[in-house]
Fold each of these.
Amino acid sequence: MAQSQSQTSGSIVAGFLAPHPPHLVYGENPPQNRVKSQGGWETLRWAYEGCRDSIAALKPDVILVHSPHWTTIVGHHFACVPELKGRSVDPIFPHLFQYDFSMKVDTELARLCAEEGKKEGLNTKLMVNPRFRVDYGTIVSLHMLNPKWDIPVLPISANNSPYAGGWEKGQEQMVALGRATAKAIERSGRRAVLAASNTLSHLHFSQEPIPPEDMSKEHIQTQGQYLWDMKMIELMRRGDIAGLTAAMPQFIDEAFAEVRSGGLMWMLSAMGFPNIPAKLHGYGTVIGTGNAVMEWNLDSGRRA
Amino acid sequence: MKGRIIGAALVPGLPHLLSTKVSAPWNHLREALIALEKTIADLKPEVFVIYSTQWMSVLGTSFQSQPRLKGIHVDENWHEWGDLEFDFKSEVALSEGSAQRVSQQGFPTKLIAVEEFPIDTGTIVALKFLNTRLQLPVAIVSSWVYADGEKSRQIGTAMAEAVEASGKRAFVLGISSLSQRFFSDDIAPESDHLSSPEDDECNRRILGQLETGAVMLAAQSAKAFAALMPVDMQGNALFWLAGICGDKVRGARVMAYEPIWGTGNTVTFLAGDNT
């Protein structure tokens, strides 16, 4: 871990839209997951292989992940325990995801993020309970991006409360949280990768096939969801961030999009809303939801 | 011998009640839960049947069927208040019977038998107060996110049939808040209060309807209020209670009604013919 890099200015080298259906880990059959499959959801899993190659080339010091399944009511929370270990069972799909996790947390960066968040007027908190069970959204995104777990991480919660004041209020907070994260990374001297742990359209089927990995039953739940997903992906591929953010409220309403939880807005803000084309590593559906694995490589953008 | 529901209650499931923080409203709820536990003990139940809004499911309704549930849970928001230890047994046969009957109604169901399954905060908090001494087995059902009030009621009705078939004396718990408008900032626990007068008014109307025994009417009110303000799972716990209790509720005793971090919470005992 880069604990003493504060002499040099840190930077965000890449951001990933990193959806977290537990099916992806289940389909891969890593040793950490107690339940095994015949495979499935290969197009998404292979998409993540492209991300793994990018991350290996970027050599980041830390991966920060914002997960909608670590929901907080009071404030934006940052994991701040040097090592988190345990078994995470997905409460929704427990038959697919029973994962023994072990992760090193960048606690110094967690403190800096909390500090910079307060300067932005946000309520921020550090999670220091070593028995905290990390949520499956955080774990799936991190596993799919870096299954070796050899890069320190920083899990960030999704604070639901600002949305009580409307979507705009919630997203304003995520923009501020993104600015705070960028400043903290700069102060830390780290080379950081960000991950927004979000599915796009997010209506599930209420029943699953037997076995769950029967791909003959897998498809998007509605054509409307598919059209929305394609529209949003195309905006990202074109680097039209203004168009993307403008379309988001309607997308969230009509496709029940998981980006409502703020991870994508946080990441875009931290990256300075970059008008560069995002790379689509792959798109696929999982139990009816739409998932895109995408990358904004700021490091190559800076070199170009 | 036929099983039967010998009593029911609507109770809160927020971790504040297990914290050491001093707060008159929280303390009132704690005292009411302690009193409810005595009432339940007098009824001599053999099993708790539980619906918690904090156990949410997507693939239809889930039923807990792991024989023993033991572990440490840390609340995802109030993690600084420490660990919630739990250790209780499942009434597996009743869970299986419930799943079977709910399936027969045309609803998707799932039996959950997984070690280290993350039991929700609500269930743990309620059972800490109500089952530490009694040590009864529990049959826990999830709150299906795609179920509206009517489906939740039908699920409750099907589970009543399962209780009857089980031959057990069951006490039923709906674990849910009423209004669910949390304060989004830190507050002093001793100064806790309802987030808005409108929330308070709606909560009191629901409680008034419960006191007359009109559980279904209270559920419908909660659903109507949910269009105007945040209500815990749109009142689905009340619909479920209406379904599982059927027409047996004669009245209710509101043992406490207090805020927790701005939300509305009650300990309300629903009384039947024999209670």
Note: Residues 1-5 of chain A have pLDDT under 50 and may be disordered.
Amino acid sequence: MDKQKKHIGSDSTFDERLRELSASGDPASLRSPEEREALWAGILRDLPQAAAPSSSIWRITWRQALGVAAVFALMLFGAYQFRHFGIFTSPQTDPIADVYQIQITPDDIDIVESSLPVQTEELHSPVKRASLSTDLPVQPEKTDTPFSRKEEVSDSTIAEPIPASSDTERGDSPTPPQERKAEPTIIGPQQREQEKKLFAEDRHIAEVPESRLAVSAQGSALGNFSRRQPVSPAMSLLNARVPGKGSNGTSELAYDYATFRHSPPLRFSLGASYDIAHGFSAIAGINYSYLVSGVEGLRSVNSKALQEVHYLGVHVGGHYNMLNHAGFRLYSGIAVSLEKAISAKIKEYNIGVYPWQFEVMGLVGASYELVPHIALFIEPALTYHPADKTPLKSYYKENPIGLSIGMGLRFRINASKP
Amino acid sequence: MERTLSDRLKRGEQSALAEVYHLWGDKLFALLLRYVGDRDRAADLLQDCMLKIYRECHRFHWRGAGSLEAWVTRVCVNAALSRLRADSRHPRTSLEEIEIPAEYVEEASETAWNIDYETLLGLIAALPNGYRAVFNLFVFEQYSHNDIAKALGISVRTSQSQLLRARRLLAKWIQEYNTHG
């Protein structure tokens, strides 16, 4: 114990003496005036660049952002056109709105007390028909169009036929046919269901069970939270060289001494999702990522080149449906991905390093069904890329935590008719 | 004076940055040298830090005398740490475990040192990367092991063991310098 105390005591004394010696020194003696001036000249040279900080927290250029916006606008426009011209509209469906509003006033319904206020009820069209027609159920003819039927039933008054023993027989002047109110029938739930079925058959909307399977195509771009840094003429701290084309077993490329500017990775995915239960669905798919970096000072101080790395991998994960309303869906999810670099080059030089890259992703997504079975989705996600154990310099390594924005189309597959 | 200087800096006056460089440039250079262990890299990092100070000065809030110097120092320490973190993401040769008896520290703390400031900085700079970062943060910045662990992304135990080894290695070198000159 005494020895331990002595150690601790000597440790703190040692530290204290170091601090004293360090504080007593003159840091100005470390650099010559020339060195000091040269560094200040370097600062002045880079100052204009530093004085114009990026207005965006993203490392996505305006050009890239405009590109994404243009693609998005194009997709929306295309979807609108398809919908408008019915290209994607299934012949089994009717573009006419299924839901509309009717008003039933107490006057129309004999059994309703007159004191009741006006009821506004949003009903499906068959229900409306059911509420106003007098003899139900009626099997509509196949040729019957919704419009014709609507006109037929929308008039709530029916002209009373002139009876055989009418005033004309008695020689009196004919009286105009009296109008009487149709007597609506108040239908029960069973009847309503039956009507719905009839309506569905009438509209040829066969109740095709929707499959739990959907496939999606997605593109995404990654950003990060850091502000744009000025290009540093700094040499890397690495001394190791990338194995490659060197004559003596080392690379000609001074890889580790170069300055890198990494662009946000772009990723394209193809995936499938399967609804499991209770709003949960499993997802899986393949993805391709493209990472490009500007490399400066590789062979000489002023040399510039591009490093391009291509990854191919798979992803799995799960989604949880948080909201599903009127074609709009909000969901969250997690996913993991494993990718393998399949190519890593600077100009024509193979870097010779092909790392595996792991990724964990938490996402929140929103999708909107543009046309039946086709939904546009956008998925902002927080991603984490653990460092691979290779000297390859990449965006993932410099920015392990990032925010990606993915966008794509999801196609829900119809199950076959039973 | 510091307050006026910070205000001028926030207005984007280049002369204010020149004054910051004139006032604390050497001290910051010494600090960075202690962390990165190489003059060229320290100079390069100082240049980056000065640009960062100029660009990010709007984040500085006046908290009394000495706060601007403390902020500027903090910017440099953080830059050095992030450089070291980036460095650790690119594996180099693995560090050998250095086993040095604790007696060196006891002896070094009891005997007189025949060593000057520049030599001391050179010895600290010669410490292996991981040891040097922990040692600087603990001894000079007076961080706790918990804070060091968070800052460097290592465990508290690693921080403790690296400090121990760094201290012993430095004590050994100081003793050797005292003996052989």
Note: Chain B has nine helices and no strands.
